[in-house]
Each structure stands twice: as structure tokens, then as C-alpha cells.
Amino acid sequence: VQLVESGGGLVQAGGSLRLSCATSGTIFSSNTMAWHRQAPGKQRELVAAITIGGSTTYADSVKGRFTISRDNAKNTVYLQMNSLKPEDTANYYCFCRGYWGQGTQVTVSS
């Protein structure tokens, strides 16, 4: 199973980024997809998740700023991140059914 993330980068505080995670159709269409992140020296944490039916869950720290969505035709899950803060700086990982992507770095400068 491959989960391929893209879209990370360097952005100023208050800016936006959109992360993408593409995977195979079989695993995508039958599972909840999630984004996690890990900052240096901290534990990996759940950022957002979306079920097959489109129900979403968010960490309190990102509610109102981040939006997770999925495109079933493209087998891709997205994380739209707005109003970014320096504390959002982390490596962001796509997760599905025990499988992790390689991660994409997001750096927010103050």
C-alpha cells in the first residue's frame, strides 16, 4: 500500500497550504483517511480524519482553520490549512488502516 503526500512547504504565519495524499482505489474507497503531524520533540498527533461517508473529526487546535476532504474519483484526500501558525510547523503524515505515508514538511514562519 502506498500513500503519497505532497503540498508541504514554507509559508508565513497567516498563510495557507493544501496537502494532498494519493493512494490506491481499493484502500481509499473502503477506509477512513486521516492526517497526523509530528513536530520535533513531540509525539505524533491526529490532526483530522474523514470517513467513507464524509464525516470529519478535527483536533481542537485546528478546528475552524483546517478542512479535510476526499475526492473519491481521484482516490485522494486533502488537508486545506488556513490561518497557519508557527505552532503548526511539523511533518504531516497521511494515514490509512495502519499504513503511513512518507510525510511532508510544513514550516510556518512568524
Structure commentary:
The protein is mainly beta and 110 residues long. The protein is 5% helix and 50% strand. The protein is built from one helix and eleven strands. The strands form two sheets. Strands 2, 4, 5, 6, 9, 10 and 11 form a seven-stranded mixed sheet that branches. A four-stranded antiparallel sheet has the order 1-3-8-7, with no helix packed on it. The longest helix is centred in the N-terminal third of the chain and has 5 residues, at 25-29. It is globular and about 40 Å long. It starts with a strand and ends with a strand. The mean pLDDT is 95.
Derived structural class: mainly beta
Unreliable residue runs: none
**How many E-type strands?**
11
Span between N and C termini? 37 Å
SSE topology:
Layout: E1 4-6, E2 9-12, E3 17-22, H1 25-29, E4 33-38, E5 45-50, E6 56-58, E7 66-71, E8 76-81, E9 90-96, E10 99-100, E11 104-109
Parallel strand pairs: 2-11
Antiparallel strand pairs: 1-3, 3-8, 4-5, 4-9, 5-6, 7-8, 9-10, 9-11
Defining key terms:
seven-stranded mixed β-sheet, 110 residues, mainly beta, 50% strand, four-stranded antiparallel β-sheet, single chain
What's this, in brief?
The protein has 110 residues and is mostly beta strands. It has one helix at residues 25-29; strands at residues 4-6, 9-12, 17-22, 33-38, 45-50, 56-58, 66-71, 76-81, 90-96, 99-100, 104-109. Helix content is 5%, strand content 50%.
